[in-house]
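[Help] Beginner question about ligand-bound structures

Sorry if this is basic. My supervisor gave me a protein sequence and a SMILES string for flavin-adenine dinucleotide and asked me to "get the holo structure". I don't really know what that means in practice or what format the answer should be in. Inputs are pasted below exactly as I got them.
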Amino acid sequence: MTTRHAVVSGASIAGLSAAFWLRCTGWEVTVLERATEFRDGGQNVDVRGVGREVLAKMGLTEAVRAQNTTETGTVFVDASGEVLVELPSDGPDGATAELEILRGDFARTILRHLPEGVEIGYGDTIAAVQEEAERVTVTTNAGRVLHADLLVVAEGVRSTTRDLLFEGQVDRRALGITMVFGTIPRTTEDDSRWRWYTTVGGRQVHLRPDNHGTTRAILACTEAEDPTRLDQAEALARIRDRFSGVGWEARRILDGFDGSDDVYFDHLTQIRMPTWHRGRVCLAGDAAWCVTPMGGGGASLALVSGYVLAACLSDTGSGSLATGLTAYEAWMRPLVDDVQQLPRWIKPFAFPRTRQGLALRRMADKALLSPVLAPLTARFARIADTDRTLPSITATGTTR
Ligand SMILES: Cc1cc2nc3c(=O)[nH]c(=O)nc-3n(C[C@H](O)[C@H](O)[C@H](O)COP(=O)(O)OP(=O)(O)OC[C@H]3O[C@@H](n4cnc5c(N)ncnc54)[C@H](O)[C@@H]3O)c2cc1C
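Answer (accepted):
No worries, everyone starts somewhere. Holo just means with the ligand present. The predicted complex, written as C-alpha cells, is below.
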C-alpha cells in the first residue's frame, strides 16, 4: 500500500493531535503553522470525559498530570474577596478538573511526543487549495506546493482556510461576551484556588494560580463589539472603561495586562457548520465547531478529534476516504452538539446586570450547590462524556 500524505494546517491542540494519530497510523504528515515558532500562551484547559481515554492512549496522562496548574479548587467570592460558595472539585470532572493544564503546556507536550517523521513548517500558511478526485494540492504563502491525500484544517475559530473552502456554510454565533485572558505577577495574597468574582453590569473577574510562579487572570463581560478587530492597546483601553469601579482585584489585573506580552482576547463565537468535510478536506477542533468557554471542553474535543479522525481513516484502508470522513463526523457530532446547546438562561445567570439579578444569582448558587441539587449541577461539568466506545485504531510500527 502506498503511504498516504496529510497536510494539517494549525499546530495547536487539534492539529497536533491529528498529526500525532495520523502519523501513528502510517500517514506522512506535514503541519503548517502561521506563527513563526511554537505558539505558547493561553490559560487553563482541561482534559475531560473521553479526552482522558485519548490522552491515556497517547501515553501522556502522567506528562499532563506533572504539569498540573496546582489549582486546588474553585470558589465564588464577593467584592472583598470573602468566599461565598465553594464549588465541588472532587472527582475527575469537578469545576477544577483532575487534569488541568495551561494551553501552551498542553500543546507543547503533544508536540514533544509526536512520532518521528512529522514535519512542521512554522511561519507558513495556505494560499490556495486545488481539489481533485485523486488528490488535494496545497500551495503555501512561502511558495511550497504540497500534493496530499487529505487536508486537515485545524486553524482555530477564525480559520481563514475554512472560510475559503466552506464559504457560505460557516454559521458564526457571537454570544455577546468578551473574555480577556492574561498572565500577571503573583502576590503573596494569591491562593491556590480559582477565585471567581461576579458583579453587576455583566462583569466577572477571575484569578487562578499556575505552575509557573505567576497568576492567570480573566476579565469577562457582556459586550456586543468584537475586540479582536481592534489593536490591543485600543481593546485594553475599552476593557479598562468597562471594568472601571468594579472593585476586588480588577485594577491590579488591568495594570498587569498593560505590561504583559501574554494577553489573549476572545469574543466568544460558536462555529456551527452543516458538514465538517468535503472531498479530501476536513475540519477539526475550533475551526469546525468552536464551543467557546461558555460551553467548555474545547481542548478535550480538539484532542479527541485527532484520534477519531485517524481511527476512522485507518479503518478505511480499502474503503473510501469519504466513508472514513463521514464516520469521523458522525462520531464527533453528538459530543459537540451536547456543549453547543446552551440554555437561554445561562448568559443572564452568568452575567447578571442589576443588583437584584446579582442577589438572585447568589441565592441560586447556594441552592444549586446544596446536597439536593449538586448532582444535577455536576451534569454541567460532564463534557466530552459518552457511553460510546472510541473507534479502534490500527497503528503501524511508526515509532515515537
Ligand atoms: C495562543 C492561544 C491562546 C489561547 N488561550 C486560551 C485561553 O486562555 N482560554 C481558552 O479557553 N482558550 C484559549 N485558546 C483557545 C483554545 O486553545 C482552543 O479553544 C481549543 O484548545 C481548541 O484548539 P484548536 O487547536 O482547535 O484551536 P487553537 O488552539 O485556536 O489553535 C489554532 C492554531 O492554528 C494556527 N493558525 C491560525 N490560523 C492559521 C492559518 N491560516 N494557517 C496556519 N495556522 C493557523 C494558530 O496560530 C494556532 O496555533 C487559545 C488559543 C491560542 C492559539
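A couple of things worth pointing out: The two ends are 22 Å apart (CA to CA). The chain is about 35% helix and 25% strand. Feel free to follow up in the thread.
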